[in-house]
Amino acid sequence: MAPTSQVDPRVLILSRIELLLLNGTKGTDYKPQLAALPLKSLHVVPCETPKTGPTADEASEIICKLVRDRGFTHVLSSHAGLCKDAVPRAAGKLDVQPITDVIAINV
Predict the structure, then answer these.
(1) Which of 24, 49, 54, 97 suits a disulfide with 78, CB 3.0-4.6 Å?
(2) Would you put residue 101 in left (φ > 0), alpha (ψ -120 to 50) or beta?
(3) How confident is the model at residue 50 (pLDDT cuts 50, 70, 90)?
(4) Residues 17 and 76: beta-carbon distance below 8 Å
(5) Is residue 35 part of a domain?
(6) Which one of 24-28, 54-58, 102-106 scores highest in mean pLDDT?
(7) Residues 19, 42: contact at Cβ < 8 Å?
C-alpha cells in the first residue's frame, strides 16, 4: 500500500467502512456497484416483502443484532417498504440518526 500521504482521502475513509446492505428483492441490485468500492467489508441481506419476510419489528431486531454482533459502521438499505419501516426502528434502538431519501453518493 502507498504511504498515507499519497492515498486518496476518499479511499482512506471507505477502507474503514463495514457496510450492511439491506437489498430489496425487486428493483435495483446495488451490490455490484458497492463491491467496486474499497470497503473494509460488505454484507448483503435480502429485504423481502412483508408477505414473505419478517415484520418491520422483527427486521429491526435482526438489523440491531447484526450491527451489534458484527460491528457494522454503516447500514444502507434499498427503498423497499420493509426497509423504510425497519431502518428507523433499528436506528432508534441503536440510538443513532438515520439519513433518509439519499438520491446519490458521490465518492
Answers:
(1) 24
(2) left
(3) low
(4) no
(5) yes
(6) 54-58
(7) yes
Cell of 103: 438520491
Query: Which residue range is the domain that position 42 belongs to?
Result: 4-94
How far, in Å, CA of 53 to CA of 59, rounded?
9
* 65 inside domain: yes
- CA distances, 71 to each of 1, 16, 75, 102 (Å): 25, 12, 11, 23
> DSSP letter string over 26-64?
SS---HHHHHTS--SEEEEEEE--TTTS--HHHHHHHHH
Q: Which residue has the higher pLDDT, 62 or 48?
A: 62
Q: What does pTM read for this prediction?
A: 0.68
Q: How far apart are CA 71 and CA 83, in angstroms?
A: 20
Residue 23 in domain? yes
Q: Strand 74-77 to strand 41-47: parallel, antiparallel, or no bridges (unpaired)? A: unpaired
- Could you tell me which residues are beta bridge partners of residue 74? 19
